[in-house]
Amino acid sequence: MSKWEDFRRCQKISLTIKKMLPTSALHQGYGGDRAQKERVAMAFSSPLQMVLVLILAFCSTWGSLAYERPKPRETLSVPLADDADGLTPQQVHVSIVGSEKIRVTWITEDDTESKVEYGTSSGQHPFSAAGSSSTYSFLLYRSGHIHDVVIGPLNPNTVYYYRCSSNPTREFSLKTPPANLPINFAVIGDLGQTGWTESTLRHLSGWSHDMLLLPGDLSYADYIQQSWDSFGRLVEPLASSRPWMVTQGNHEIEKFPFIRSFKAYNARWRMPYDVSSSDSNLYYSFDVAGGAVHVLMLGSYADFGPGSSQYNWLQSDLGKIDRARTPWVVALIHAPWYNSNEDHQGEGEKMRQAMEEFLHGARVDIVFAGHVHAYERFTRVYDKKKDDCAPVHITIGDGGNKEGLAKDYIDPQPDISLFREASFGHGRLEVRNGTHALWTWHRNDDDEAVVADQVWLTSLASNPACKTKN
């Protein structure tokens, strides 16, 4: 039997064992690297349980060592459909606006009315809303007409069917987030538009998530504005059906003389920043699941120093959170504050120094980052040391970008780093209730989503030792 066949057999054994073990036995997570220490420290109710977990630890650790890293795949260019005309809606995506409304964004080649008709039955659209459109220029490129319409109020956890610009040839459907827990988040960073991106999106399409969170680096257009159009068409099947909430990465800056930075990003991916009293599309926050989860989308490439608008806004936003009502607080940044990969070392340090104290004081539960093209999960950490009342930091910049993987890690592995692997993949955060959430990282394994790391998280709001001032 080949090494690869042994690896796949070990994976199947692991899946069987996980079904046999109680939640408490898996609570601290499994996977390779330093996560193994967490399991050894656990107390088990029977010798059999100990044996099963040791087998699980072996399979997970050996599997990571045996796994062969995938090769880069071609960059995709998604053209406009052959039967499309100048009025055909394309690049459709949705995002939430407050608790009861959805923003629908799309592009048409020709100017037409910004209108969305919608309803809860396919082919029937009794409700309608109007909005506005805009265009932008970038050197010799001129965008299509970017339409922006907010629909609602909508019922939670409900499928709506809609069409843009009263064009009956393309009907879309979206599902609104639930009004309470549980809620499922897909998390992808540094997505790009390659064959691996396509694989990641295909994996997600088979999972019933409520919302997607993306911590920056969307299209990798890098000044080539037609690549923004291609990216919009590539993600449309998913982005038109579930809210996509994004923040910016370095590839969105597109700095050029006499052209505003983030010009394409701000025009194409408008987020509900004004709802959270932010003055910039580069940082904002929102509530979901009836306020049970508060999500901070921070700007690694907007001014974050003391006295800046983002700095002051973050202080104010965190001060409004009532942890009795909001047991979960999640933050997204692009450049990670903690990183044991050789790539992008120290690039998030200034932001960490400026803002980490705020997140620690507010007992933020999880911080997701991108930028580094690999996966890494840290323990709860504050000021570079383990802290049981600090956030778990997770780097997930492995969505499928064209630049490939960041394969080189610093040795020895820091004590605060529990699991790290340079592979493409995506994450799933399942917030089950006010106290527990399940985090899973799925490796893109020959186009099959393989669970490579998993951990149960407990909200800091439920920990009596981690009370906040709010």
From TrEMBL:
Domain Purple acid phosphatase N-terminal: 89-173
Sample GO molecular function, one term: acid phosphatase activity
EC class name: hydrolase
Keyword Oxidoreductase among record annotations: no
Catalytic activity, EC: 3.1.3.2
Membership in a protein family: Belongs to the metallophosphoesterase superfamily. Purple acid phosphatase family.
Protein name: Purple acid phosphatase
The organism of origin for this protein: Phoenix dactylifera
